[in-house]
Amino acid sequence: MTKAEFISLIKKRLPETSEVHSKTVELSISTLFSDIIFSKFKRGEIDQFAKPYPDIEVKTDAKGKFYCDLPVKIIASPSGFGSVRRIYPSEEEGILFLMIHPVKVRLIKHDEVYKVLGAIPYYLKGGNKVMFPVKNMKGISQVDMNIIPLFSEYEMDEEVVMPGGSEWTIVKEIAALFAGTPPKDKVND
Q1: 142 in Cβ contact with 132 (< 8 Å)
Q2: What's the rounded Cα separation, in Å, for the pair 120 and 135?
Q3: Which end of the chain has less Cβ packing within 10 Å, N or C?
Q4: Cβ-based neighbours of 103, under 8 Å, separated by 6 or more
Q5: Mapped to the 3 state alphabet, what secondary structure does 47-101 carry?
Q6: 3-state secondary structure of 27
Q7: How many CA atoms lie within 13 A of 75 on its CB side?
C-alpha cells in the first residue's frame, strides 16, 4: 500500500464530523509506525523494512574523520545502532562494513578482527550521521545504505512495507484518537 493510499484509508475511517488535516494523520501514522518497528528491533525482525539509498557521498570533517550524512530521518532503536541496517560500497566489491557501538570505537584500534578482515567499522552519531572511525576509506567516495526511514520520509506514491497486521492496528488507534474514544484494549481505568 502506498503512503497516500494508507492516509486516505485512515481518513475514510474517521467520523464525518472530524475535519482532520492529512498532515496530522501522516504524523500520527509516523508515530505509531515507529513504535511498531521499534518493538520489532527487540526480536531482530527488521531488515525486511529497510529501504535502499544508493550513492551517498563519503565526506571528511575538519578533523579528518570520515562520515556520511543520512539522506532521511530514521527510526530510533533500543540498541543504539539505529535503523542503518547495512552499508556497502557503491562501486567496489568485497569491502566489508561492520556496525559497532560508539563506546567501542577506541577498542577497535587494537582488535585483530578488523585488521585481518580489512573491514571498515561504522556507528551512528546524533541520529543524522554515520561515522567511519578509520584513517583510510580505501578509496571509497560513495556508499549505498539500507535504512529504515520514518513513515513521514516516504514519498506519497511510494510503497510502504509494514509488519503484518500492523496496518489495522494503526487504523484502529488513529480512528479512536480522532473520534475521542480510546481503543477497547487501551482504556485507562
Answers
A1: no
A2: 10
A3: C
A4: none
A5: HHHCEEEEEEECEECCCCCEEEECCCCECCCCCCCCCEEEEEECCCCCCCEEECC
A6: helix
A7: 30
Distances (CA, A) of 89 to 61, 120, 149: 20, 11, 20
Pairing of strands 129-132, 120-125: antiparallel
Residue 162 near residue 154, CB atoms below 8 Å = no
The two beta strands, 66-69 and 59-60, are antiparallel
Element housing 130 (H / E): strand 129-132
SS3 at position 134: coil
pLDDT tens per residue, range 35-80: 888 888 766 678 888 999 999 999 998 988 899 999 999 988 776 6
Alpha-carbon distance of 36 to 127, in angstroms, equals 19
pLDDT in tens, 120-177: 888 888 878 998 888 878 788 999 999 999 999 999 999 998 888 888 889 888 888 8
Rounded to the nearest 5°, which phi and psi values hold at 48? -70, -15
Q: Side chain identity at 5, as an amino acid letter?
A: E
Cell of 116: 585481518
